[in-house]
Write a structure and sequence with these properties.
about 230 residues; five-stranded mixed β-sheet; single chain; alpha+beta; Alpha-Beta Plaits; rod-shaped
Length: about 230
Amino acid sequence: MRFTAYVSGKVQEVGYRARVVDIANALGLKGMIENLKDGSVKIIAEGEDEKLKWFEDAIDIKNALIYVSSIEKSYSPASGEFNSFGKLVAKGETDTRLDTAAGYLKELISAVNKMNENLGGKMDQMNENLGGKMDQMLSKQDQMLSKQDQMLIKQDQMLSKQDELLDEVISMNENLSGKMDQMLSKQDDLIIEVKNVNRKMDRALETGIVELKSDMAEVKSALKAKGII
């Protein structure tokens, strides 16, 4: 089959024909593409039906340079007049295309420079913002370290007070132990004194009992002598 298309839009001097040639050769099609005086492009392609359908979709190109606005297309029987797929170039078109390419290259370089300037400004702003945030983070870190130092100082004070308290408790225990020893010593002395008193009382009681028995014996003797008992 033969596929014929008239493509309108931004399709001349932007590399559109070269793209179409690459697509047609990749699909194994035969034919030609040429610029028309009204600014449109004419395409004739011959090959298998399925590949022509793919080609029909592929030539509707829209990118940064090329913009296809409309395609008038038709199908007819193939003529077999083409041996390959190429572009028809009018006399003097090559020089014009080179000038156009140079113009697009300048525009592209200008756009890239502008992007770099914008990117540089954004990078500077990002660096400033990052620097400010880093300063804030460092300030907060210093505050945290200062609070940590204060906490360590308080911890040292608490440990010092704890040591003082332990010393006081140890001193109290020592004093209490000494007093307990004194009390136990006095208790021992008291026990000894009580024992001594008990011994003295036992001796006195024994002596009194002996004397009482002696007195009772004398009384009995006297009563017997008088015949009372």
